[in-house]
Fold each of these.
Amino acid sequence: MKKISFSLQLLLGLVIGAALGFLARAGEIAWLTTTLTEIGRIFVQLLKLAVPPLVLTAVVVSVANLRNVGGAARLAGKTLLWFLVTSLIAVVIGLGLGLVINPGEGVTISTAGAKAPDLEGAGTWLDFVTGIIPTNLVTAFTELNVLQIVFIGVVLGAAALAVGEAAEPFLTLSRSVLELVQKALWWVIRLAPIGTAGLIGKSVAAYGWDLLAPLAKLGAGVYIGCLLVLLVSYPALLALVGKVSPLTFYRNAWPAIELAFVSRSSIGTLPLTQRVTVERLGVDRDYASFAVPFGATTKMDGCAAIYPALAAIFVAQVYDVPLGLGQYLLIAFVSVVGSAATAGLTGAIVMLTLTLSTLGLPLEGVGLLLAIDPILDMIRTATNVAGQIVVPVLVARSEGRLDEAVLNAPPVPLDDVSTRPLVTGGAPAPA
């Protein structure tokens, strides 16, 4: 398999999984559907297993690494600014598409059985803000509350910066744990072609046209919106602002974007995202060790901008609730400011719930969309991860931290760099 590129392995898994899914559905082969479902479930479970230690140590080390970066405050500010700008562009695209295609217009779908999701701390802005602060350190990890884990990591990293030399043993331990988790997660990522077959196969076997037809316009809108961001917005920013060839960018970043599509997890893709950002695109390692983990937990153009904009319009039209200019501006505000609510896990239900509650729309509308959420989440997550790579490239270019030789060299085979540390505490690793 090492003779076949990782991208091609993922593509083969996608094709084989889809074929097996069609076979299972057409032939009503229950055991095949169950097998595909279990393969996909185990793969996602392995990704999620690494999330708590990965997020905590990545955030701690990322914050602590800022002391190694000259002009750290300026870099962090630029990164956050570009996160906001690109999110605003994405939500404008989502709103524009929603107004053009009217995804909920003429949809005949029963809302009687729709239920609001039971998501504690996701209903209102106050719930969201207070929910970031954990009431119990243990439950933040056992319940996989990524936002709370990020909060703990930021506090510990900032404290380590303030303490200085006395915190070095803690930071050394954090770096060691981070490298161990990333290595283990890399082994899981190498199983992605098999996991892809299971995830895609299960989706094809489970969702028929009779289920998808009422939501087809919304689904098409989400895919079109994400593709506009991927193929128009990002390339324009790369070419005009970053002076980087979009073709070169996507050639080098493609494995991470492809894995994000099939895994539906920005955090699960983090090691590969970090790898292509540093080893293929030439972003300075110390800066990337802050920007990429930060983006993996907060930068969600697909889940937090395009999708909630289109979905909010869909829900409003299904429930016959008129939206005015004020509501559309509110959608844009929520999408840009509240993008951290998605927290890099599979799905964007929390963000959609936050958007609907802010607009006063029925939260039961979320229940209407759960059937096709896995299908939509594929392109949303791919868009998220692409944005998480684009922004560090733009900032690195503006700060002179982009290595042209690495950027324009033939893509490095991923196996050749799989043993190099992705996040370091000192100087960049030797080439």
Amino acid sequence: MTLQENNYRILAINPGSTSTKIGIFDHEISIFEKTIRHEAKKINTFANIIDQYQFRKTAILETLDNEGINISKLSAVCGRGGLLRPIKGGTYAVNDLMLKDLQSGYSGQHASNLGGIIAYEIATGLNIPAFIVDPVVVDELAPIARISGFSLIERKSIFHALNQKAVARRVAKELGREYSELNLIVAHMGGGITVGVHQQGRVVDVNNGLHGDGPFSPERAGTVPAGDLIALCYSGEHYREEIMKRLVGQGGLVGYLGTNDAKEVEQRITAGDKKAELIYEAMSYQVAKEIGSCSTVLSGKVDAIVLTGGLAYGAGFVKRISDRVNWIADVIVHPGEDELQALAEGALRVLRGEEEVKVYPGNFSTAKI
């Protein structure tokens, strides 16, 4: 299919646990966005996440039809990438192997696995391409960054790749440079926090934001003292599932303050809550420390430090971090996490010929120790 420059219209799809976010973009411009809420009762009738794809696809098509949007004018459909094999960053065409891995849950079951499947189902009926962009399994780690210090465990790359990469590219444009020319440190700060070293277009080091290491966040514990954690696990007082919940979901601000709402914490600080002030300061301190650590990976040659994600809306939180790290490089703030926009931009780069579409799984390999 030959696409005309003036006709690039993209449907972006981002499935969540109980909702599906969709957007229609004419080039980079959003002309329609909506979050489709799914009743928990209906979602729970499906034995597996993957069984939801037809239900969610129907909901998407009905929503677009009700809004009077003609899907025959679409140039491409782009879905959120799921838990696939480790791959390099970029925009990938959905192919048979990808569909198989998404359906089987190659690296785990998650609602995002539905993104590529639904995109393919809709695109195939329209004879247009289906893509995914920068899933959380993007792995561009340098071999040295994989070494954990414990020979039975290798460090893994699991991070907010979609937003980190999208924001890094936007900053490059603002600076009048190519992403592939710059050395950036990008801190995504949301329910989880990941800080990535972007060296000339590749994320060569990043903390595992799922349940690995790095700063604690509103919901996650981050790095904790290993010996004490092991002792806790073998104390006989806690189940495995309980410990995991305390690390992911009930860690960080939730564990200390009983909330994951940064605005609420800031209000408590304003009202004189000294514990809230200490914990909030500690979270910003750990983010700054991680940024400082990342600067050593680049031998101090850092073009910019980028703060993004929901927590970047907090002026006080941003200032606490900036005051500690702005001696390294200028701090640029891009608050929020516009995943639909990032998906559309990834598809556009391929449609415009600015980036070559990647074939899953590519020639990915990691250095085994």
Amino acid sequence: MTARLTLLSSFLILLAVLAAAPARAIESPAEYISLMDYDTGEIIYEKNGTELMAPASMSKLMTMVMLFDAIRDGRVTLEDEFVISENAWRKGGAASGSSTMFAELGSRVPVKDLIYGVIVQSGNDACIAIAEALEGSEAAFAEKMTERAREIGLAKSTFRNATGWPDEGHLMTANELAKLARYIIDTYPEFYEIYAVREFEWNGISQSNRNPLLYMNMGADGLKTGHTSVSGYGLTASATRNDRRLILVVNGLDSEKARANETQRLMDWAFREFRKYDLLEAGQELERAPVWHGTSRTVPLVIPEALALTMSRDARKNLDLKVRYDSPVQAPIEQGQVIGKLQVSAPGMPTRTYDLQAGESVDELGLFGKAMSALAALISG
């Protein structure tokens, strides 16, 4: 049988006019951009979003997932103390010249404070101490990071260390960083609150959170900056306005000032341009498909769950909704059986495909009924 492609009813065409397609591309000096709608998990705008890049300290989000997992599983408590080894101190402490929480060599730091040391101060010494405590070495910990990343759906990300320090094999994509941020917000809300903390003091040294959006009164409450000579300046951020949350990832900017200005501009643009549109209700019938050798000549195709998409207000008439199925559908058919697909597309937006189910059961005809059906089909051509 050949695939039959049909336009939706005039009702759905009207919906297409009322809904919206993604925005026209916005010019940005950022080399990588990923914009995600938190509620749906959809990437609603991207620039090189699927390309591997050096994530710098933004990969510490994965380091924290490993620690959060250990706390959730009962292997670690917030009161446990991890040792700052000579390795952690030299590679990530005051002696390293890198981002550090200034933990003293040989000191024992409570897990709760290490969390603040990583999230607020971006401490490399804290990251290495966590890695060594959980897996014995930073290299072994990085392997576990990659394994865990695959489990939560990060198909491309690969880790070589706990800090994000430059390594040719330590790579992520902007889209997967956005997905990781959403995972943290969803799975660990009690720890996510810490990403909004603006200042933390350890060993008599107070440091401010480097996330510039936290200081702009724009609804931002996380997550993590990054910078190396290889990656440029980056930020994985999230903000809420009017009960809507967006996640933004940028990377490859050339200065702290550019990072602050560009992320604010992109976040403002995203909240202004994009809206969540309720397109279809759960169980809504989209079309009736012809049935072959069935007690009913047609079967309704319904969408099992409500369909809502976050899209821009530009180019609304370009939203395209189509139903695709093999025609005719062979009886018997059970209610709830997947018998078609709904395709939703628009310029600049990847085509999204959703299952369509049979809205009712259709029994198969008996031998006599099949013969009569075949005869009728023969006569009608």
Amino acid sequence: MNASVDRGAKRRAAPAFLQNAFRPFFLGGAIWAACLVPLWVAAYLGWIPTAQGVTGHAHEMLYGFLAAIVCGFALTAIPNWTGRAPVAGSGLAMLFVLWLAGRAASLWMPGLAATVLDVSFLVILSGVVFREIIIGRNWRNLPIAILVLMFALSHLAFHHPATSAIAIRASFAVSMLLISLIGGRIIPSFTRNWLAAQNAPSVARLAPPMQGFDKLMLALTGVALVMWIGLPDLWLTGLILVAAGLGQLLRQLRWQWQATLAEPLVWSLHAGFFWLSVSLGLVGVGIIFPAIVPPSAGLHAIAAGLVGAMTLAVMTRATLGHTGRSRSADGLTTLIYTFVHAGAALRVLAALNPTGSGWLIAAALLWSSAFLLFAIAYAPMLVGPKRVHA
């Protein structure tokens, strides 16, 4: 108890930017995402030289951008789950500097030292998540700690040439399971809260989170993704992935998405989660009919669609709520959602029709612009103090 009180006092004494993990990591992750895709497209089209290639692009999207958002979300949500004071101040600063050092090391530092520096961020994050959940005796969220550990182990496996491909699939699988688990909790809950505030009659028809059907679909998705990691070319794997995608769609239809269209901050969560069904379906169809649907279509549905849209939906809502703003989306925030979904859709279409570069360039500009707009519009909230209402 004294340690938690001490951490709380240190947090209040820290600059606003270091009082919650979402502040540095959402801002840093958004800026990194805005830079990564245009740079990769320019290199892919031969406009600029690069030594990173496709694996470097995948590495930074997963273990740079996504790792930052996972860290920002987890270390912000866990105090709400455990009642413990959040990681803040100098400890948070050191973690953020380690993430920045990993980005520099992965791009410019060769050798073992760079690898150790790069992988240490997720390893340490995993340790912090386990520590907080175990000390807080928050056993309900132990699966999230396990998934973060799997993410860290996948990152380590990425650095071995023999396992880099399976590591990428494992990291994508972890991101999909995290979204399936956490999204399945927060989307029905946030939807119910908003519908109740509007006195909407559809609130009575909304399925509560994490019922038996939800758990069954989580299990089916887990089986499908484990098979995809280990047996990515097996026809049965593709079939189970398609079944999981349909199951996730049926699961989501119980959450009254059609009643949320008046509030972008709510419908953005539903729209982001919809990419889970699309991603599972495209990956599965790509295995069954590879001549029709190339593997890159499913991978970009996950990365650009599911991860991109869900992270922005969560980042905007969490930032507004935790900085004392109204949980309501303005026009610029709605534009952010529009850009990320349009960019993701174009990126999947570009994978399905790889003959021209126009869709690829348009997709990159739209998707990156969404994160750039977030960084510009939300930076004052992330850096400045929380609003206190009288």
